[in-house]
Amino acid sequence: MTQNTGKVVGVNGNLLSVKFDGSVSMNEICFVKVDDTALKSEVIRIRGNIAQIQVYEMTDGIKYGDEVEFTGDMLSAELGPGLLGQVYDGLQNPLPVLAQQAGWFLERGIYADGLDHEKKWEFTPTAKPGDVLRAGEYIGTVPEGPFTHKIFVPFYLLGRYTLKSIKEKGMYTVKEPVAVITDERGRDIDISMSFKWPVKRAVRCYSERLAPVETMETKIRLIDSFFPVAKGGTYCTPGPFGAGKTVLQHTTSRNADVDIVIIAACGERAGEVVETITEFPELTDPRTGRSLMERTIIICNTSSMPVASREASVYTSVTLAEYYRQMGLNVLLLADSTSRWAQALREMSGRLEEIPGEEAFPAYLESYIAAFYERAGYVRLPDGSTGSVTIGGTVSPAGGNFEEPVTQATLKVVGAFHGLSRERSDARKYPAIDPAISWSKYKTVIDADKSSYCKDILHKGMDVASMMKVIGEEGTTLEDYILYLKSEMLDSVYLQQNSFDSTDSNCFADRQRYVTDKLITVLGSDYEITNKDDARIFFNRMRQRFIDWNYKAFESEDFKKAEAEIDMLYSDGKGVLTGAAQILLKDGR
Amino acid sequence: MRMNKVYNRIESIVGNVITVRAADVRYKELAQITTRFGRSLAQVNKIDGDIVSLQVFAGGQGISTGDEVRFLGRDMRVSFGDELLGRIFNGSGEPRDKGPVLTENMTSIGGPSVNPTKRILANRMLRTNIPMIDMFNTLVVSQKLPIFSISGEPYNQLLARIAMQAQADVIVLGGMGLKYDDFLYFKEELSKGGALSKTVMFIHTASDPTVECMMIPDMVLAVAEQFALQDKDVLVLLTDMTNYADAMKEIAITQEQVPSNRGYPGDLYSQLAARYEKAVDFANSGSVTVLAVTTMPGDDVTHPVPDNTGYITEGQYYLKGGRIEPFGSLSRLKQNVNGKTRKDHRALMDAMIRMYSSYKETLEKKNMGFAMSRWDNKLLKYGGLFESELMDLSVNLTLEEALDTGWQILAECFEKDETGIKSDLTDEFWPEN
Question: Which of the following CATH numbers is that of domain A78-114+206-439: 3.40.50.2000, 3.40.50.300, 2.60.120.620, 3.30.70.100?
Fold first, then answer.
């Protein structure tokens, strides 16, 4: 292919107009030559012989007539062993490598391979010559950290192939051919342990997509027991600033019951990424006993990094997630924040002078958001195993108002909604997920009836609370007042959770089931209480005992002691289980 | 080096933006315009074929279509070095004091962002002796924090007090749309406190041209960054970022950009973030901490400027009624440091805020004329003590003194198990009288 070139004829922020001669394709990657660097860019609109391109870098110093080279390729991620534990920018440049080359700052025009091309990996063949293969089926494996990394027939190969030859078990780099396959016309194709995939295209090399039925434990009580997330499902966490979106995602990334976590820090603070990079290598993944970093990939395109690569970063992240799903693994992609991605779209749309939609977001915002979340899914793979990509996105609505376009477009396509509220975070009720507005379509880790029973107490108590604001405490009946205290207690001992305490933050499903039963006993009982002051004192004490209990390791001596304190107070209060609670607490539920 | 090109024909003048037909001009390059009122810098902000748009620092007033435009072949730079300390400059980088023009060691402004892997976790507390900061929302070295405030609040006084009391090697102050009185106030306070000799000021006052306002943060941060790379802990103070955003809005509208929200350009978030993210703790070197006043038009935190800022910064101090409000105020990085100050710090902080929130609810009930229960009366007493002993901005206590005061207040108002604090802590810290 001859080198296709063009010339810059206009500069407006990071949008360039380029006059070209040959043929240019949409979303093609090109490089703008400025001084002695070449800046990576992507074609986003073509009109006549003018291509408009977004530059993934600062455009200072570009002038009329500067040369542009088109590559013929779309923006792609390099897939193969060695992705885990990496810290990439939005274009899959490993940041530590850039730091070695450029020092403190992200100097423009410096790019590095996504995978280490020198490192050798131990390849074990699993396919035999003569095997018939399709894209997404594997021919061998490589150990990568705690996982068995599968080596695939590249996803972009259409049709059926016959394995002609395959290398023996041994050490190879990701670029060395390890097998030769033959297509239906008899042409040979070399396969190495890595290949490229255009990030804006979904990987569909699975046999079928299944409904997400298995709950993904996050160890957060409020989520797992009331507003759960399923493996292969999607959820969103909108909230005003300061409501704790990032802390919530951070806790989830540490504790979620999945194989691999991909963190897409999209247009957010660099400091938060530093926190993850610093902490994760020190933390242990309880599932494997190895460093948490070995199951994590960080794609970080923080807020001060160029906006066009911010847009690319979410696609790069989801592509890596799909790649690991293809190995039969459960992958969680946490995108913080999808609003920044939407804003990147808005910035480019504005420069392209497109007719703006609501709040100047482009008209295609909804379909882009839907297409992104649809890349999640629980799938059956060609070898019969299953894998999943779960996507959790934060949304940063302007002014904390959920009526804005990004939140609304997201709510249409996700399976669970964790709405954070300013009132709860102001009152330091963390996680500040508002039980009054949140919902989930997935299965809870505790019994569904128990979950609704608790939610019911919560909602009734909240109703009493808002009524009390009007009629005052003295106008409230003792019965209602106790209901209110019960719901307050449920909120503070079960919904609220200390994410900075290692025991409390890690409340796994068994513990949640155990604690809920105890809670239902306490909440589902009538007591010999005759006035409101006594009621408040009783439930304050009960609350205190439950909080102490939360900080004790499950089934430890201290745990049992703290539980005995609760039981003692319960019998002091002469608690009598109500009928509804009795039914719920019957054995075997 | 190519010759500086000179053009004598200005095609259009709209607001502060002019266009000329010119070739071989680079995006963001500087030019000098000579008018009958003197010279001004201008910067290329758009190239469309051979039509080049420039924003004129001194503004469009009085520019004639026949005025001379000379391209300088360089981008905007600022001099850097120890001789900057004690000096005051304007938004074009020219001296505002009587000192000499500095041309040594020129450094580009608005440079690339720091590689996140070269940053280190912010983990040093910056003590201010203001309890609402040290105890409840600890400030951390390399943090970026705005002070949200309505006009009329003593935000510049707070900024000056922090500047005097916080430990920093160098202070870089950026004034945008600053009232002249406030400029004099800063000068006077800093020299009274003996801090002027470690301070550099870049000042744009309300009467200076708009485009110069837009240059201030970049100059301030470029200088701060250079000092930090020389192992200095730098404190950057910016006041007021809303004026900065308004300047951006003005230019964007002049250039017919599609506005996104209340007239602000769609890239407001990215523009603000590019500045705030200059706050950094360099591994094995210095740091930049940024405190920036953001006035909220109409006390509306959902206004695009404070709203976007809140999403960028690591929390915010919310100044209201002359006090740092506990609700709405937040230091996101406090968790990095308040676990190793004193073991009761976190629990006490959370409990006191929770109680204060209950106090506010009770106060509301009281104002509506409801009878107060025993519990309500406890809360009312608590709220009063909390406000006078800890919240008042005149209170000057070390962190440890503030924590002790906190326990004292709780003990005066409540029983141990009414506080919701873990028993291990109340057993140890509850005052015995």
Answer: 3.40.50.300
